[in-house]
Amino acid sequence: MGIEEALSTDGFFTSRLQSLINWGRRSSLWPMPFATACCGIEVMATASSRYDLARFGAEVMRFSPRQSDVLVVAGRVTTKMMPVVQRVYAQITEPKWVVSMGACASTGGVFDTYAVIQGIDQFIPVDVYVPGCPPRPEMLLEGVMAIQKIIDQDRLPPKGPNGKRRPLQIALEPTHEVGEQPARITVGLT
Ligand code: SF4
Q1: Confidence class of residue 178 from pLDDT cuts 50, 70 and 90?
Q2: Which one of 43, 76, 77 would you pick to mutate in the ligand 1 pocket, going by the greatest count of ligand atoms within 8 A of its CB?
Q3: Which residues, including other chains, have CB under 8 Å from residue 66's CB and lie 6 or more apart?
Q4: Cα(94)–Cα(92) distance, rounded to whole angstroms?
Q5: Residue 120: is it exposed, middle or buried by C-beta count within 10 angstroms (0-12/13-18/19+)?
Q6: Which one of 3, 86, 113, 158 has the minimum C-beta count within 10 Å?
Q7: pTM
Q8: Does 181 fall in a domain?
Q9: Residue 118, domain CATH
Q10: Ligand 1: does its nearest atom lie under 6 Å from the Cβ of 76?
Q11: Is residue 188 situated within a structural domain?
């Protein structure tokens, strides 16, 4: 069905300004990848042709916080690096959203050491946690869709403290089911 069929015969439709703004925001997310380790490779795969992040309107990766609105922290963050992440977060203008991608960003992962931050949410507000080590590109896509759902429900002006949005802290459930291997491989004697 084309837009012409959806429109009335007079050729106009009505909407709420809030819905229109949210629709524009959700359809044009500009992520800023803060990729420090292996999870970053999955971010690259998500943007590549096979997974095609462009289908969600979020393919325009920006490496300048002033041009971005979604911070994707992918990989472990050290105590030395955390002030940089905080500064990048502060430089992104409102409205902004944060995705914590992978076990390391969300909890420190296997790196239970004094040098690695045990969860970035202790320092910056996180909207969506994407589980996995590493999360598959499909999981990151689900994280982007979760951000889109958050934006759909956003209010103008935001209802959080100081007129700022409150982070929703959604934790995605792993959805990947192990399928049959394409090639039958037998290990050991047959
Ligand atoms: S969660 Fe796993 S894949 Fe991601 S950065 Fe940590 S060790 Fe690497």
Answers
A1: low
A2: 76
A3: 91, 92, 93
A4: 7
A5: buried
A6: 3
A7: 0.82
A8: no
A9: 3.40.50.12280
A10: yes
A11: no
Number of compact structural domains in the chain: 1
For residue 124, tell me if it sits in a domain: yes
Is pLDDT at 33 greater than 80 in this prediction? yes
Grade residue 99 by pLDDT with cuts at 50, 70 and 90: very high
- The CA-CA-CA angle for residues 47, 52, 53, to 5°, reads 60
- Domain-embedded: residue 49: yes
Lookup result for tokens 């992104």: 92
User: CB of 41 closer than 6 A to ligand 1?
Assistant: no
First to last CA, the chain: 57
Distance (Å, whole) CA 50 – CA 34: 22
Domain that holds residue 143: 3-171
Local structure of residue 67 (DSSP, 8 states):
G
The answer to whether the CB of 61 falls within 8 A of the CB of 88 is no
Over the chain, what is the mean pLDDT? 85
Give the DSSP per-residue string, 114-175. TTB-S-GGGTS--SEEE-SSSPPHHHHHHHHHHHHHHHHT--SS--SGGGPPPP--EEPPP-
Ligand 1 atom nearest the C-alpha of 103 is: 1
* Cα-Cα-Cα-Cα dihedral sign, residues 81, 85, 86, 91: positive
- Cis geometry, peptide bond prior to residue 157 (ω within 30 degrees of 0): yes
